[in-house]
Structure formats: C-alpha cells, structure tokens
Amino acid sequence: MEPHDDGDSIDLEREKEELLRIHADDRKAHFATDADALIAHQADTFIYVGNGAVVEMPREAMRQDFGEYFKNATYYEWDDLLPPIVRIANDASIAWMITRTKVRRKQADASGVENEREFIYAGIMTYEKRDGRWVRTANVSTFEYLKP
Fold first, then answer.
1. Which residue range forms the structural domain that includes residue 143?
2. Does 5 map to a domain?
3. Does residue 3 form part of some domain?
4. Cβ neighbours of residue 110 under 8 Å, at least 6 residues apart?
5. Rounded to an integer, what distance in angstroms lies between the CA atom of residue 119 and that of residue 130?
6. Residue 22 domain-assigned?
7. Are 41 and 22 in contact (CB under 8 A)?
8. What's 143's domain CATH number?
9. What gap in Å lies between CA 93 and CA 3, rounded to an integer?
10. Number of compact structural domains in the chain
11. Per-residue pLDDT of the chain (148 residues; tens, 9 = 90+)
12. Stated pTM of the model
C-alpha cells in the first residue's frame, strides 16, 4: 500500500466521489458487456470471496472470466437498491464500498437459447490507492436469486 501524501490535506469527499465514479463506470461496463472496461480499475491480483471459497485471480484471468460472462449477454437492470456505503481511511490509502444491486440480464448459450436471470447482489469491494489511483483488491459477494 502506498499512502497518499502529496503535502496537501486529503479531501476525503473527493476520494469518495472518485470511488463512486468507478462504481458508475462498472455499471456502464456491464451494460456495454465490456470486460476490459470492467477490469480497468483491477489490481494485478484480485481476491474473490464467495460460495465458501477464497480465490486469488490474476488480472488476465478476470478479463477472461468476464469476457465469458458477458458473451452474448444483454443487461436490462444493474441498479443500486440503496446508495453505496463508502468508507475511506484518513490517509486515503485504503477504502471499501458496500453495494446492494438488482441485476436482470439475459444470455444466449452455445446453442442460442436465451436464459434470463434476475438477482440481487450484495457485497463489499476493497480498494487500495496505488500510484495515485484507486484499484480494486478484493470482493466478498452474496446473491439472492429472483429468477434462476
């Protein structure tokens, strides 16, 4: 971790706005089904926690996973159900964001059959400030499936 120290006082509100902009960019990346845009703020190694597992993933593996996840997909909803909860360390070196998001998407499988899924995602994303920019370092995810 690299502390933010440029001699000026740290504007935590500005830091929060930057993190919320990244979250908004993630929404755009989902609607555009753009894996490159989604991992633009990813650390070189990312830790994912979900379904009883802890997995460390290199950046390129994340790109490939999201490339498949987005393949032949269309998003109808990817909307916050409550405002993101953001907390930032006083030195702006680390932060986390909790979100609760409703997602509705369809995806065609290899045979062309379209499957629609609807779920609520709730999770926490962690961030570190590296070389003056926020990068995602870890995520813990939970899902409530409304339509399998």
1. 12-147
2. no
3. no
4. none
5. 33
6. yes
7. yes
8. 3.10.450.50
9. 5
10. 1
11. 444 445 468 999 999 999 999 999 999 999 999 999 999 999 999 999 999 999 999 999 999 999 999 999 999 999 999 999 999 999 999 999 999 999 999 999 989 999 999 999 999 999 999 999 999 999 999 999 997 6
12. 0.91
